[in-house]
Amino acid sequence: MKAIKSTIAQSGTALYIKAIIFGTLAGSMSLAVLLALGCVGLLITSSIPHDYLSIIAIALCAVSSFISGYISARITKEKGFFIGVISGIIMFVIVLLSGLIWGDGSFTFLTPLKLVLLMLFGALGGIKAVNKKDRIHIK
User: Fold this and answer.
1) Is 68 helix (H, G, I), strand (E, B) or coil?
2) I want to staple 70 with a disulfide (CB 3.0 to 4.6 A). Which of 88, 97, 129, 138 is the partner?
3) CA atoms of 88 and 115, how far apart (whole Å)
4) Residues 27-49: what's their mean pLDDT?
5) Cβ atoms within 10 A of the Cβ of 122, count?
């Protein structure tokens, strides 16, 4: 058992898994906060047409996928594109399952668009995190 743990630790797989889980949890929490703020905004201004609600929801999902990819790749400090895409796919699965469980349970033409956008924004967040230079602290 000890040899298996050392092999996983040396390969970095455990770090990637932990980073993706933590980033996805942060992305899910940010999605919940963004959707709550969006609901408050809709209550305040009721002049937004109902046709735009799904587009707004997809945009909020894309922003949370960016956050998920950014945090995941910031933890690993390498392979930002790959980590971001995986985070985006997991975010898509979470959004899809929640929509199937609590929503109307149907696939629409927007479902593949959500997958592509969440993967794209997750990858962009991962790339941004890996290319971010650490701040220089002047004493």
Assistant:
1) helix
2) 129
3) 8
4) 88
5) 35
d(CA 116, CA 102): 22
pLDDT value of residue 60? 93
d(CA 116, CA 92): 9
Q: Provide the token pair at 112.
A: 């593949």
> What SS3 class is residue 73?
helix
The residue type found at 80 is: G
Condensed to tens digits (0 to 9), the pLDDT of residues 109-119 reads: 888 999 999 99
In the chain, which residue ranges form alpha helices assigned H by DSSP? 2-11, 13-44, 53-76, 80-102, 110-131
User: What value, to the nearest 5°, has the Cα angle with vertex 132 and ends 76 and 65?
Assistant: 65
